[in-house]
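Components:
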Amino acid sequence: MSVVPKETVEVIAQSIGITNLLPEAALMLAPDVEYRVREIMQEAIKCMRHSKRTTLTASDVDGALNLRNVEPIYGFASGAPFRFRKAIGHRDLFYTDDREVDFKEVIEAPLPKAPLDTEIVCHWLAIEGVQPAIPENAPLEVIRAPAENKPHEQKDGPLIDIRLPVKHVLSRELQLYFQKIAELAMSKSNSALFKEALVSLASDSGLHPLVPYFTNFIADEVSRGLNDFQLLFNLMHTVRSLLQNPHIHIEPYLHQLMPSVVTCLVSRKLGNRFADNHWELRDFTANLVALICKRYGTVYITLQSRLTKTLINALLDPKKALTQHYGAIQGLTALGHNVVRLLIVPNLEPYLRLLEPELDAEKQKNQTKSYEAWRVYGALLRATGLCIHDRLKIFPPLPSPSPSFLHKGKGKIINTEPQKRKLSVDSSDNRSPQKRLTTKDGPDGVQSQDHTGAAPMEVDNPVENDNQPQNSAQPSSSEQTSDANESESRNGMVKESGRGRAITMKAILDQIWKDDLDSGRLW
Amino acid sequence: MDPEQINEFVVGYLKKKGFSSAAKDLEDFHHQNNGSSLSPIDYHNDPELTKLIRSFSQQEDDPTRYRECYSKLRSWAYNSLDLYKHELLRVMYPVFIHCYMDLVGKGHTQEARAFFNSFRKDHEMVHLRDLQKLEGVLAPSHLEEMEFARSLRKSKVNIKICQYSYDLLLQYLHRTESTLMLGIINEHINFQVYSGQPTSSSDDIEAVTIVGSFQDTANHINQKEIQWGLLEDSLEDRLEKTGGLLSDSEKGQGESKDDADDSKKRSTETGKQGSSIKKLKKDKAGNATAKVARLETSTVPPTPRVKPELALPVMSTDVEQSILEDLRNRVQLSSVAMPSVSFYTFVNTHNGLNCASISHDGSLVAGGFSDSSIKVWDMAKIGQTGSGALQGENDTNDPTIAPNGRRNYTLLLGHSGPVYSATFSPPGDFVLSSSADTTIRLWSTQLNANLVCYKGHNYPVWDVQFSPFGHYFASCSHDRTARIWSMDRIQPLRIMAGHLSDVDCVQWHPNCNYIATGSSDKTVRLWDVQTGECVRIFIGHRSMVLSLAMSPDGRYMSSGDEDGTIMMWDLSTARCITPLMGHNSCVWSLAYSGEGSLLASGSADCTVKLWDVTSSTKSTKAEEKNVSSNRLRSLRTFPTKSTPVHALRFSRRNLLFAAGAISKPAS
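Structure:
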C-alpha cells in the first residue's frame, strides 16, 4: 500500500477538525496524498535545478506549490538548511526542532550583524591549460599512483592514443625559485635573505611540484658536504621549512629525506673545523627528527621503531665515536620521555661504565676526547633528568625533587649507580649485561625492548598508534604500567631524598610495582 | 467435458464481462436446444479449445497472476542463451511497467506496489528516473493525470530484436500459454524484427529510453531537411576576405589565391547546400595540389552558407570593426594549445545565486538572485582583472555605470520572483532576465533601468537567450513552450509547443534560423524559427537536459544533463556522435571555443572540463561504421575550490570565462 499509512490521514483530518472521517475514505486518500507529495517534490526538484543548486530547500518547495497554485507553507523560509532530528526509536523518522521563542529575548537581543554584500573575485583558473598554484585554486592533487589510471585508460577505446608517461613540467618561475633557494642554501651564509627564503618555503602554497627536487638536492648535498658545517645546517633548516609548509604533502618523499636527516644527527664528523659547533646542529636535527615522528608516525607505523633502532644501535656500539653517541642520545631524548625511559635508562649503567674512563681527566689525556665525553655525559643527564621530571609531574603524591638533587647527583653520580643497578637487575631478569648488548646479538635485545617500549609510548602520544592493539584495549593498565615502570628509576631517588616519607609511599609503590609485573606478563 | 459445464463457463464469462444480454440470449438458446443436443462445434473433443475456454474462465483480473507470469517470463529471460539474453531482457522493462500500470489501473494498489518493489531492482540501473516517477502512481486517476504514464499507455514501444530472439520469445509465450504476457506484449510493444545476429547491447541508445508516442514521429521529423550552414557574408567571412591575407602570411601564395577565389564565390553563390557540395569538391581538388599548410581546415570541408530567414539587425560599423579586430587576434585553440580560463567567483551570495551570465567580451558579469534582484558587475571597473586582453576587448563598452555608493555593482530591481536566467546582448548594451514571476525583462546596462517587460508565458520562465545577432531572443518555460520574441514587440513572434514536460534550456543556432530546446522529457528539439516547426528530436539523455551549446560552424550541438552526461549531436542526422562521460553532477553550462575545436563544460561537481571536439568529428568522417565506439577526449579537468560552475563563455579572442558562487562545504 501507500507509504502514507491511513493513520496519518486520520491524524491530519483530526488536526483540521474533521472527526467523522470514514476509515475507507482515509484508505482512499492515503495513496493520493503520496502521489501529491511526489508531484510537489518533482516540481520542487525542478526549481532547485534552475536555481543551480543540488540541495533542496524550503523555498524550492514553496516554488513548487506556487506552480501548482497552492498557497505556500509559511514560516519555513530561511536561508539555512534545516536541522532535522531523529525521532528516538524510529529508524527513519525525523522532525525539525521547533523551539518556543520568548519575545523578550528576541527584542532584547542585539541586532545581528548585517550580512556581507555580494562581490565578485576574479582569478586565473588556468593559464594556457595549466592551473597556477595560487590559493584561489583547489590544491593540486598529490601525484597519483599510476595503478589507478590504468584500468580507466584501457576502457577509453581505440581512439585514445596511449599517453606517454607524464612529463613533469616545471614552470619557469618555479625553476627560478628552486635555483635561488638552492643557491642560498649553498652560500653557507646565515644571511637575512636566507631566513626570508625559509619563511617563504614554510608558508607559500604551490611549491609542491618542487618537493622532489628539494629532497633530491638535500640528499645529494648532505652526502657530498659532510665536511661543510654551515651547509649542513642550512640544509636542515630547509628540511624544517618544508616540513612546516601546510600546502606540501611531503609524506611520499620522507623515505628520501630521512637518511640525510639521520646522517646529520649521528654522523661521526660534521664539519671540518674545530670551531664548528656541530653539537648545535645535532640538537637541531634531533628536534627535526622528533617533529617528523610526531607528524608522520601515524602514516608510517614503522617510522619511529626503525628510527629508534638506528639510534640505539649507534648508542650501544662502543666502537662508534662519542659524537655519534651524543647524536643518538639527543635524538632519543627528543622522541619523548618514554623512549628515554625504555631505551636509555636500562642501558645507563653499562654505558656509564664505558664512559667513566673517558670522563676522568687523569686517564684521558686527549682534551677533545674528554670534552666530548663530558658533552655526552651532559646529554645523558638531561635525558634522564627530563624523563624523571616528567614522571614526577604525573605522580603528585610524591615529593617533588629538591632542586639540589640534580646538583647532588652530578657530584656523586657513580654512587647512585649501584642502587640503580640493584633495581634494574631484579626488575628485569631478561636484561642482558652490557657485553651481550654490544656483541652481535645486539639487535635482538633492541628488538625486545622495542616491543615493550612501544606500549607506554602511546600513552604520551595518542597520535602514535603503534601496532599493538592490546594496549589500546586497556589504556588504564598501560597508564599504570608506565607509572610503575618508571618507579624503578625513582625508587632509588625516593629513598635518597625523602627517607621519612618512603615508608608511606612504599605501600603505593609496591602496589604499582605489582601491577607493572602483572601487566608485563600480557606481552 | 460436459457441455453443460461449458455453457456455464461461457455464460459466467459473459456475465462477468458485462455482456448480460448476450449471456441471456445464450441461456435462452440453450434452453431451446436442450433436447436436440445439436452442437455447432465439436468442442468436446478439442482439448485446445477447452483449455482456452478454461483460461478465459479463470479470474481475469486476479492480481497475483501478473506477478506469477512476470516472474516466469523473467526467469526464462535470465536463463536464455547469452547471445540473445540482452535482447530478451530489453523486452522485460516495458512488460514490467505495463504490468504495474495494469495493476494500478484495475485498482489493486497494494499488489501493484508489492509487484513494483519486488522487481524494481532489475531496471533501476537504466531506468531509475522513470521508476521514481512511476512509483508514485497509485490510483487509476493518477494514470490519467500524469503525462508520462499517459504517454506510455497510449503508445507502443519500438524494440529492435533479431529474428531468432523473436521466435524464442513467441515460442515461450505460446508454450506456456501466458496469455496475459502475450496480451501486454502485443498491446504495447512493436517489434522491429531483423534478420541476422543480435547487435551488441551497448550501441542501441533508443533501447534505454521509452519516450512514448513520438518515437515514430521523431523518426519522421528527423527526415526533414535542415540547413545547418553559417550565414553567408558573416563577419568571419569578411575576416577571411580582409584579414586572411594580412595575418596568415605563412600561407602559400597559391593557396591564398585559392582562398580569395573561394570567398568571391561564396559571396556570389546563393548558399544552397547542393552548390556548397560542388564547392567542397573544388576545394578538395585545390587543397590536394596546394601545400597542406592548414591543419584542421584541410580535412574538414568548409561549412555551407545559408541565407538568413529573419530580418537581422544592422550592426554599426565601429562594433563591427571591434569584432573583426577580436577575430583577427583570436588565439587558435586545439588539443595542444589550451585556453586560459579566468574565473569569476561570487562570494557572500548566501545561497541566493540562481544564474550567472558573462558578456561576450567578458567585461560584464550578471547574476540573477533568488531575491528577485539582478546584479551587474563591470569587471573592467573593478580592476582586478587588469589583463591586457580584457582592456582591449573592453573598449566597445561605454563606461557609464557610475559607482553606486560603496556598491561596486549595479542593482537591477523589478522582478517579483527568483531570477532564473540572464543574458547579455552581443555588444553588451542590454540584459534580458527571466523570472519565476512569468515575465522577461529587458534592461539597459547604460541607463541601468528596465526598458520592457515581456509577458506571455504562464509559468516561470526558466531560460532566455539573445540571438547571436541581438534583437531577437528566445525563452522557455515551465508551460512547456519555447517562444521567440523581438525586442520591439511585447508579444511573442513564435510559440514552439511540443515538449512533453518543462522546457529547461534554449540555445540559438549560429545562423539564427533555428533554436534548440532541452527539456525535462529528456529530449532536445530543434525548431525552425521561421515556421515554428519542430525539425529535429534528439533522444538519448536519461535525465533532464540542463545546458546546450552549438558549435560555431553550426554542424554540431552538445547537451548536458542532470546526471553529468554530455552528448554531442550531429544536427543533420540527429544522431548522437558520442556521449561524454566524466562529470558526476549536473552540467550547468557548455561552451564551444571560437573556432569550434574545444568544448568546455562546467558542472556542479566543481570542475571545468575541456573536451577535444576535433578528434571525434574527424574520426566520424573517417570511419562512419564505428560511430558508437569512439569518444571525445577529455583533455583537461580544472577543479575549482568548491565552486560549482554556473556559466562559461569563450570570448571572441578565445579566452574562457567561467563564473560560479563559492559554496561552503556542508558541515
